[in-house]
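Hey,
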Amino acid sequence: MARGSTLNVSLTKSLDRYVRAKVATGGYESTSEVIRESLRLSQAIEQSQQLFWADARSKVAVARRQIAQGKVTDGEAEMDRIIAELDEMAAKPKKRAR
């Protein structure tokens, strides 16, 4: 790996033990490798959260437009209709497979 810049960081005792234990178990060759991997994972989590919230904001915007246009459904009435339909399906005799 190409060597980048050097940055000194201070860790709590528990984080220091954690990093050193990761190296000691053989999963990593150095403490720097543990920190780099941790930062990459942190970046991935941040990107995932950004995508999640962008999608959520987009869906809320669509919902607000639909509400403004009067495109709404009475949720309780729709659930009653679906349940009645399912009850009707359950009450019908089932066809036997031959």
